[in-house]
Amino acid sequence: MPVQVTGEVVSAKRIGAYTAMTVTAPGVPELARPGHFLAVQVGGPASSMLLRRAFALYDMSPRGVYGGTVQFVFAVSGRGTAWLAERRSGDRLDVVGPLGRPFRLPAHPVSATLVGGGYGSAPLLPLARVLRERGCRVSFVLGAGSVDRLFGHLDAKRMADTLAVTTDDGSAGERGRVSDVLPAVLERTDSDVVYACGPMAMLRAVSDIAAERGLPSQVAVEESMACGIGVCMTCVLPVVGDDGQTRMVRSCVEGPVFRGDRVRWDAVGTVPPDAVGAITAPGAHR
Length: 286
Prior knowledge:
Keywords: 2Fe-2S, Electron transport, FAD, Flavoprotein, Iron, Iron-sulfur, Metal-binding, Oxidoreductase, Transport
GO biological process, one term: pyrimidine nucleotide biosynthetic process
Number of domains: 3
Order of helices and strands: EEEEEHEEHEHEEHEHEEEEEE
Distance between the termini: 34 Å
Oligomer: single chain
CATH topology of the largest domain: Rossmann fold
Protein name: Dihydroorotate dehydrogenase (NAD(+)), electron transfer subunit
Pfam family, one: DHODB_Fe-S_bind
Cofactor: [2Fe-2S] cluster; FAD
Shape: globular
Mean pLDDT: 93
């Protein structure tokens, strides 16, 4: 079960185009696993910004000088994240976590390829550490629009067996997208499983490439999450269940990690007419 705590900002470091923020959060890191996320209150107690902001966990430490701490990464994209970027050491933040379903781990050592886009690589770094502890071979493919929007590539280089980097403008690594180099990486590393986090278009491409090669994939989707606890239904997307039926599921509760081959990528943002409960005709429900 997640916990709600009022923590203090330990540090807020600028890393390229992003901010990495560390916050005390007693009780959260002990429960957290790679793929979990936090819901952070923004704007302060008197703010009109009522909705929390969801951030994937980048690091979690149950012990240390400050006690239990969590770290997350974000880019300024609106009033809420702009307010958050102005917080300094000692400022208080209300956080809820860990939330969602984390990445599922292999029962035996495997060769795993981790694919990240922009700061979507943040939850993949703790995942890589856990996989290495389990004896897995870990390869990274990281991409972004430009070098300042890459995240974690230096950490990935230290912990991975192989690392491939791409940027749209060619300012770091190969010019292009992760999907351009991923097929060769999968073949070269003889990968058994693919994990990915980043923009939805990237996740679709990665899932398709893995499926073409008969490889299982797990993707942490980046749907907008207003409440983070499954109440508001703003983060639903169509996913095929074990029974073969499509259902509109909540990314914040049933996800954010899904099997890549189960997401109906072509129907994201819509309610497919064959989904359970979809309206199939005026006044009729399936």
